[in-house]
Amino acid sequence: PSQDKEYLTHSGTRSTATVEEWHMHRYGCICILALDTKGSLLSKGGKATSLLSALQWSTLSQILQDPFTKVIVIASDIPFVLDEAVLGSTGDGMLVSWSSYQDELHNMLEKLFKWKHAQYPTREVVLLSSGPGFGTTGDICDHELGLSIPIAIVGPVLGRVCNPKRWKLQNTLAGGRFSYVYRNPVDKWNFCMVDIDLSANQHKPNVEVQMIETEVPPGTSWAGGVSVG
After folding, report:
1. Of 18, 54, 141, 181, most Cβ neighbours within 10 A?
2. What are the DSSP calls for 74-127, one per residue?
3. In percent, how much of the chain has pLDDT > 90?
């Protein structure tokens, strides 16, 4: 593919037997992949053994094999890494993060870190996701390769903000190979901005993830009678 051509590679599904809502865009040497972790569960009645469909994994492999790719931004509808402080504390039976599919999560992280390491420091990865009701930024570290990847949990933009005390803001994965740590969460409506500068340093993309936040207006009320003072 041409380095300066924007194009849509894949979206949705190729089969009427599955439900998939995801897409990948390329902007020159920057790839943005928005994942769908619910399609497999919906298609298989909640009995899916994988969060991602085969087509999504195939698309990720194509991105990693493309020699033009320098920056990959991957977005997920659930956090990549966020563990409950007390297992089952959410109580609603919904997936809270990729941690429920640890083998798949470890496979994803291993692929991304190996790709970054192969041409470090000229490559970068950013992981973005929605969350349970608070926003924060942090890093995932690969202690085997000695690299880190920036990560952000964003939202809500207009919804109910929750207390992060039920969640571990730092933890280890895969027997200690990976670890994550988040900064202090924001208790406001929020989203994030990803600034990618490829011109500042020809040998290293400059990637900055910045939280944008705004106060929840006084008097805002939620279901159950809870309101903001």
Report:
1. 141
2. EEESS-SS-EESSTT-S-S----SGGGGHHHHHHHHHHHHHHHHHTTTS-EEEE
3. 60
